[in-house]
């Protein structure tokens, strides 16, 4: 269950990271409210997951999911570059997430 919570926390991290783009410096009410709500949900879920998942592993995976999701969103919806080097780096982050999960023993 903790791993599901961690995965959801990572998805909400993507939500708030992407949301920051649309708040226009926190001057737009609804994007700001949704971004703040996503931040709160993400942190609560992370905190719940860290009850049983080691801190270093959980935090690294949480940020990794957020990074991957944000980069993929940028490529798909914001016309950010999808160069071989960039995708290779994203693959390394994914490998790190999978590796941490595999060696966590949980």
UniProtKB/TrEMBL annotation:
Subcellular location(s): the record lists: Cell membrane
A cellular-component GO term for this protein: plasma membrane
Q: Which GO terms describe its molecular function?
A: transmembrane transporter activity
UniProt-listed GO biological process terms: xenobiotic detoxification by transmembrane export across the plasma membrane
Name the InterPro entries for this protein. EmrE-like, Small_drug/metabolite_transptr, Small_multidrug_res
Q: Which UniProt keywords apply?
A: Cell membrane, Membrane, Transmembrane, Transmembrane helix, Transport
Residues that span the membrane, as ranges = 33-50, 59-79, 85-103
Q: Where is the signal peptide?
A: none
Question: What's the protein's topology in the membrane?
Answer: Multi-pass membrane protein
Where does the UniProt entry say this protein principally localizes? membrane
Family listed: Belongs to the drug/metabolite transporter (DMT) superfamily. Small multidrug resistance (SMR) (TC 2.A.7.1) family. Gdx/SugE subfamily.
Cross-referenced PANTHER family: GUANIDINIUM EXPORTER (PTHR30561:SF0), SMR FAMILY PROTON-DEPENDENT DRUG EFFLUX TRANSPORTER SUGE (PTHR30561)
* Name of the protein described by the UniProt record: Guanidinium exporter
Query: Mind giving the lineage of the organism this protein is from?
Result: Bacteria, Pseudomonadati, Pseudomonadota, Alphaproteobacteria, Rhodobacterales
């Amino acid at each position: 269950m903790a791993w599901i919570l961690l995965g959801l926390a990572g998805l909400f991290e993507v939500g708030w990271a992407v949301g920051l783009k649309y708040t226009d410096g926190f001057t737009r009410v609804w994007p700001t409210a949704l971004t703040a709500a996503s931040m709160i949900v993400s942190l609560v879920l992370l905190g719940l997951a860290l009850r049983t998942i080691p801190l270093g592993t959980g935090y690294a995976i949480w940020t990794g999911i957020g990074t991957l999701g944000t980069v993929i969103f940028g490529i798909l919806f914001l016309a950010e570059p999808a160069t071989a080097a960039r995708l290779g780096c994203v693959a390394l982050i994914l490998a790190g997430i999978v590796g941490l999960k595999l060696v966590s023993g949980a």
